[in-house]
Design a protein that fits this description.
The complex is a heterodimer of chains A (381) and B (429).
Chain A: E1 4-12, H1 19-27, E2 34-35, E3 46-47, H2 68-83, E4 94-100, H3 108-116, H4 126-131, H5 141-145, H6 149-158, E5 164-168, H7 171-186, E6 192-198, H8 204-212, E7 224-230, H9 232-238, E8 244-253, H10 264-278, E9 285-289, H11 295-305, E10 312-314, H12 317-320, H13 327-341, E11 343-344, E12 353-354, E13 360-366, E14 371-378
Parallel strand pairs in A: 4-5, 4-6, 9-10, 9-13
Antiparallel strand pairs in A: 1-7, 1-8, 2-3, 6-7, 8-14, 11-12, 13-14
Chain B: E1 5-13, H1 20-29, E2 50-51, H2 55-65, H3 74-90, E3 100-106, H4 113-119, H5 129-132, H6 150-159, E4 165-168, H7 174-187, E5 193-200, H8 205-213, E6 238-239, E7 241-249, H9 250-255, E8 262-271, H10 284-296, E9 306-308, H11 317-329, E10 337-339, H12 342-345, H13 352-366, E11 368-369, E12 387-388, E13 394-395, E14 400-406, E15 411-418
Parallel strand pairs in B: 2-6, 3-4, 3-5, 9-10, 9-14, 10-12
Antiparallel strand pairs in B: 1-7, 1-8, 5-7, 8-15, 11-13, 14-15
Helix pairs in contact in B: 2-3, 3-6, 7-13, 10-11
The chains are: A alpha/beta (381), B alpha/beta (429).
Chain lengths: 381, 429
């Protein structure tokens, strides 16, 4: 597999409206996780919000929806597009590969329709709903429920017309977006790709989903990140400066017997495959970004790395919350920044760890149903 | 050398049922399975016609699925059923399969009205916290219980797939993009075979008003509600179902003696970058997707005999797609057969591309093309004039076919199918 080159990275997280701000906050030991009242019923008392989100557009119009995840996506993708100067790449050759957490619309969108469909006895009447009650649904409910719409809007805003996918719904999908971009570049279908990941919009529905997928009590976060990937040929032709390379990546599937998520075996398999693609061994890895929420992940880490003490391990979710589909993009953007600055912050209130510039970082990701993913990044010396 | 990818198995769940040969005969006959909803007949939904999977089939699929059926959404039931049928058709054994995966498209999921009725407070506000105390009360079809990737992961779990497994959610383009993604995975050498396609089900209270609110639903009732390319078209008809195909590296298929139905020769994908609520009027994105698929397959438009059109029957889609076909094929556009299944089975949404793909595979393999139901030659919209197959199936040589899927939001995908020709004896694999 040919390596693909990263030429830009940007992130918006609960710690800052930018990758540099997020990394600086991590280095200073800050966390975006804060107490949140009113969620006790879901067994959750904290979350990591991105607030306030700067408005990028006027409120909803007849052909546009403005949603938190759409705004997050636009912020990071637009910034990465600009950083990489993608305007000089033919727009038909720029791909959009997006890992998107589950979208939803506010429950209030449907309240009026439910109320308007009650009979004289106060009971909901489906026939009344069909005969006109449904017209009280918020007019943007359908657009809010189609998670690809915000990607279509982004394409129109940036005038990007190339290969594309929207993948859902957890971190394994967010990692997969990078590999889909690599395939598009390898196959010649694109010269450059904006790869982005966006978390689920936080709210009661997200918490309910977490309960139902067997991960109650998880501290959820809101964040997004985008990385621009390009072929070596495109980078050379355009004379842009690389910020790193994606040198390996793999996804696999095998549910764990221990709980939600993939088995340790599946996690080990994808790591070994990703490292083999990169022509690297576990000893080459200097930085490991973990999710930090599963026994299977810890078991896989020990199986691959033994008891190495020189490996810098960072768990962004400790400070940023669990970011579902946004996790791998945020972790990848942070990994590129850490490899560039030569320092890995401690996410466990310890001391930062010096990193070899141009070293190798491994990003781990998973989905609660059993998907496992690994991405191998190489820094620029 | 890039490996060739072939189709060795098909599984579909449609308003005609779940047996591939039965569905194909009905499709060829051109008699629509579209009708007023039987599931909600008493309540008279505003969507006057739908493409529903027959209740007898739904019950049979529930029984086939097993104990978890009661807590599983319909699209996952359909997806798993289609996957099992595709594996059986391909002659592949039960898993585990270390070098096989699945790319299964689905809708992002939808709310269930029943949940909102249950969670409504006396003052009319809705309290989702009510479900926190008893999450099991959430409707099985809700996106809270059955997220977008559930069909993909359930297919993988039940078929023992250990390779790449993921879910594409680009609305009506999703399942063709899933097929394209799987093709690339096999070409890259990371899988020997993949299950690819999509599953969707929105014939429920919220689904039935969804496209009415978007002003995209057909306003006519009955079997003739959807009329792609016709001057009399009024919109789309919501359908439900699933389509999964076994895509396999050619040498792997040959080595195990599989029957090869046709070759997946090319894939193209694009973005309209126009408006999310309307296609580009000149079919800009569709032209790009078709051209890219042809280039990917190193195939000239002159070698293509069939276009399986997206053809929703909406005012805006059909002329834009017809213009795109004309732009790609030039003056030969009048001699390329065009068909669409959406007037026959309804618009199967995230599964639509995969079911159209299955039909095109059979058309290429068997040299027979089903008609676009409800399209009379004298009623073809001049803005949509092409060589439409109408009235009866057309027996014709089909060397290659393009399958289109064009989504709300501006995502476009095209797959190029080619009649399979085995490599000459002694040729390099």
């Amino acid at each position: 597999m040919a390596a693909v080159v990263a030429t830009a990275a940007e992130a918006v997280t609960g710690l800052g409206l930018g990758l540099a701000a997020t990394l600086a906050a991590l280095r200073s030991g800050r966390t975006a996780v804060a107490p949140e009242a009113g969620l006790e019923a879901f067994g959750v008392g904290a979350a990591a919000h991105v607030v306030p989100l700067p408005p990028t557009h006027a409120p909803d119009g007849p052909t546009r929806v403005v949603t938190p995840h759409g705004t997050l996506l636009e912020l990071v993708a637009r910034a990465a597009h600009g950083q990489a100067n993608l305007g000089s790449v033919p727009r038909e050759a720029v791909a959009l590969m997006i890992g998107l957490g589950m979208v939803d619309s506010p429950a209030a969108d449907l309240e009026a329709a439910v109320a308007a469909s009650r009979g004289a006895d106060g009971a909901f009447d489906l026939a009344r709903f069909f005969q006109g009650g449904f017209r009280a649904i918020h007019p943007h409910w359908p657009l809010r429920m189609l998670n690809n719409v915000v990607v279509g809007q982004l394409a129109a805003d940036l005038d990007v017309r190339g290969d594309n996918l929207v993948l859902a719904a957890e971190a394994d999908a967010g990692a997969r977006a990078f590999l889909e971009a690599r395939e598009a570049l390898d196959s010649g279908a694109a010269l450059a790709a904006i790869v982005a990941g966006v978390s689920e919009t936080f709210g009661p529905a997200a918490l309910l989903r977490a309960q139902l997928r067997g991960t109650p009590g998880l501290v959820l976060g809101e964040a997004a990140a985008a990385v621009v990937l390009e072929s070596e040929a495109s980078v050379k032709a355009r004379g842009v400066i690389p910020v790193g390379r994606l040198v390996g990546g793999a996804t696999g599937f095998e549910p764990s017997d221990l709980g939600p998520g993939p088995s340790a075996d599946a996690r080990v398999r994808v790591v070994r495959e990703a490292l083999a693609q990169a022509g690297r061994t576990p000893d080459d890895v200097t930085l490991l970004l973990v999710e930090g929420d599963a026994v299977d992940e810890a078991d896989a880490r020990r199986a691959v790395f033994g008891r190495r003490t020189d490996l810098a391990v960072v768990a962004p979710s400790v400070a940023l919350g669990h970011l579902t589909s946004g996790g791998p993009a945020v972790a990848s953007a942070l990994a590129l920044a850490m490899l560039s600055t030569g320092e890995a912050p401690s996410t466990a209130r310890g001391t930062p760890r010096a990193l070899k510039r141009g070293g190798v970082a491994l990003v781990l990701a998973s989905g609660s149903a059993g998907g496992a993913a690994a991405l191998v990044w190489e820094g620029v010396p | 050398m890039t490996p060739r990818v072939v189709v060795t198995g098909l599984g579909i769940v449609t308003p005609f049922g779940c047996d591939l040969e039965t569905v194909w005969r009905a499709w060829l006959a051109g008699e629509p399975a579209v009708a007023p909803s039987r599931r909600f007949a008493a309540e008279k939904p505003p969507t006057k016609s739908v493409g529903e999977v027959p209740e007898a089939d739904v019950e049979a699929l529930r029984a086939e699925f097993g104990a978890d059926a009661a807590t599983t959404d319909l699209r996952t039931l359909y997806g798993v059923a289609a996957a099992r049928r595709a594996l059986a058709h391909a002659g592949l054994p039960a898993g585990p399969h270390a070098r096989a995966g699945a790319v299964v498209a689905s809708g992002p999921g939808a709310h269930r009205l029943e949940d909102f009725v249950r969670a409504a407070r006396p003052d009319g506000s809705i309290d989702l916290g009510a479900f926190a105390r008893d999450p099991s009360a959430v409707h099985p079809g809700s996106l809270w219980r059955s997220p977008a990737d559930r069909p993909a992961t359930e297919v993988a779990r039940r078929c023992g797939l250990r390779g790449p497994v993921h879910c594409v959610t680009t609305a009506c383009a999703a399942s063709l993009q899933a097929i394209g993604s799987a093709v690339r995975e096999i070409r890259a050498g990371r899988a020997d075979w993949m299950l690819a396609g999509g599953a969707d089900a929105m014939v429920d209270p919220m689904g039935l008003v969804f496209f009415v609110l978007l002003n995209a639903a057909a306003t006519e009732a009955g079997a003739h509600a959807c009329r792609p390319f016709s001057r009399r078209r009024t919109g789309m008809v919501t359908g439900e179902g699933a389509g999964l195909a076994v895509l396999e590296r050619e040498d792997h298929a040959r080595a195990r003696g599989a029957t090869i139905l046709c070759e997946v020769a090319g894939y193209g994908s694009s973005l309209d970058a126009f408006r999310v609520t309307a296609p580009h009027p000149e079919g800009r994105g569709a032209i790009q997707a078709m051209s890219r698929a042809l280039a990917d397959g190193a195939t000239s438009p002159d070698e293509v005999d069939l276009v399986s059109a997206h053809a929703t029957g909406t005012k805006l889609n059909d002329p834009a797609e017809a213009k795109a076909v004309r732009a790609v094929f030039g003056e030969r556009a009048d001699r390329v057969a065009v068909t669409s299944g959406k007037s026959t089975m309804g618009h199967l949404l995230a599964a639509a591309g995969a079911v159209a793909f299955a039909g095109a595979v059979l058309a290429v393999a068997r040299d027979e093309v089903p008609p676009t139901a409800n399209l009379r030659p004298e009623e073809v919209d001049p803005a949509c004039a092409l060589d439409h197959v109408t009235g009866a199936p057309r027996r014709m040589p089909v060397r290659a076919a393009l399958v289109n899927a064009l989504a709300f939001g501006g995502h476009n995908a095209t797959i190029l199918l080619r009649k399979y020709a085995a490599p000459a004896a002694g040729a390099a694999p």
